[in-house]
Amino acid sequence: MAAAGFPGATAGWSTGPQETTVGALRRAVESCPDTTFLDVGGARWTYAQVHDRVARLAGGLAGLGVGRGDTVVTLLDNSLDSVVTLFAVNALDAILVPLNTALKGEFLRHQVADSLARVVIAEADYAERVRAVAAGLPELRHLVSPGGPLDLAELYAADPRPAGPLPDPGALSMLIYTAGTTGPSKGCMVSHNQGANLGRQVSEMGGRRPDETLWTPLPLFHVNALCGSVLSTAMLQGTVSIARRFSLSGFWPEIERSGARMVSLLGIMIPLIAQMPDTEEMRRCHGQLRIALGAPFPAEAARTWRERFGVERAGAPGYGNTEAAMIVCAPLSGAPVPGASGRRNADFDVRIVDEQDRELPPGETGEVICRPLRPNVMFAGYWNRPQATLDAFRNLWYHTGDLGRFDADGNFHFADRKKDYLRRGGENISSFELESTFQQHPGIAEVAVHAVPSALSEDEVKVTAVLAEGSTLTEEELCAWAVDRLPYYAVPRYVELRAELPKNDVGRILKYLLRDEGVTPSTWDRTTSGIELVKR
Predict the structure, then answer these.
(1) Under a CB-based contact definition with an 8 Å cutoff, are residues 281 and 255 in contact?
(2) Distance from C-alpha of 375 to C-alpha of 533, rounded to nearest angstrom
(3) Distance from chain centroid for Cα 484
(4) CA nearest 167: which of 148, 187, 193?
(5) 453 vs 103, 106, 450, 525, CA distance in Å?
(6) Domain 21-34+44-190 has CATH 3.40.50.12780
(7) Which of 6, 11, 4, 3 has the alpha carbon at shortest distance from 347?
(8) What is the pTM of this model?
(9) What's the rounded Cα separation, in Å, for the pair 39 and 79?
(10) Confidence label for 452 from pLDDT (cuts 50, 70 and 90)
(11) Nearest residue to 25 via CA among 88, 111, 108
(12) Which CATH class is domain 318-417?
């Protein structure tokens, strides 16, 4: 697979800098011990204070037998403990397994059991969920929770663990479970340097400076917040302000209180903030935020953030996943290319291929595959799933399962997940693009676009949506609205309005269930209406 013809393509193996979570914290303590590292809802801790708690918790965990290569599961809300546990577990050369706090029942049992963790640290109410499935957790030895039989305070009361040798940058730092849609979730093995590399990428994308506070409400059980916010801050020796959860009404008061110059957001938060009514805090904070990062960050929303809030840079495009991030990203200089997610970088070799893994030329859409150009910047495989790892690395390239293309200038454009791609009237249709369109309707809260088998040959398009609170929108009105905003072949034949959409444990819509259900009794059919499509 030659790189010729792809502007921005890189080749060769580059060692580059290698980092560990433990090393980043130690250097910050040596350089700026009295600088505020963490601000959680107004409570502040310096690097020295965090480091002291890390050493004590590491001593307590060592007393429970945690050592090199062991896994420690956490079910923790955004808090000081969430951050301290990452560094304490890694200081023992052990592996953190931060689980989604929404997990319960079989979803929870599977991930705890699969990780082989003997120690679980959980909030008090989440600990009850662990006890409810304890019979299916043969490896579990210690359940640590505030106020529980084994109180977290007891671990902090241990003698501080002396600083030992730094872990190898390629050693595992975390297991991050990917949300399964067709099977059980799999644990992505994330090394120290992979997490640090993502943190570096996020800082460079936004052009963040050490003296600028970063504010985020994103959960600390995902790499986005753990690496892109917490670890990147430690590497910069700056300050991160962490909200316990996202609150629309509390957003601008938090920005004003924290003095944040950069925010890291996700999904629906971005348009909700853009559309919220004016507040006094919003007006006082005009121009305070310099950088707003998030995905997706549509062009219209970015324009609103710049014009209404005085943000200098709204959205720093990038593309990747837990296994490999970010494999393309936008350069700091210059305006992002509309609709693009950036360009190739020095970390990954990225190609677009057909079903036979043959490389496609610029402009053609195919599956996105990649491999690392530096050591330890990509996941080390799926935990205890060698076959799944081999399957993902067909022909020794990691297959993302996503569709995309590079244009003639080397800009990457995401198309869709392969299984969510539709074809109708001889045209390929992106469910991602259709969903982005329908999300613009003020009467829609959530939406999923998926295929329905056609009696002819190709797919029919179905939209399954949840109405916004107070909306009286009908299926026919929604379809009529779409006629002026979509190419004729992408206008859905079927529309169904529901009270809720089926989701997995991390909130991802399970479109395979919707596809399996097909045309339900409550589905509206455009062919029974008077709506006409004009082929133009």
Answers:
(1) yes
(2) 53
(3) 33
(4) 193
(5) 33, 32, 10, 14
(6) yes
(7) 11
(8) 0.83
(9) 9
(10) confident
(11) 88
(12) mainly beta
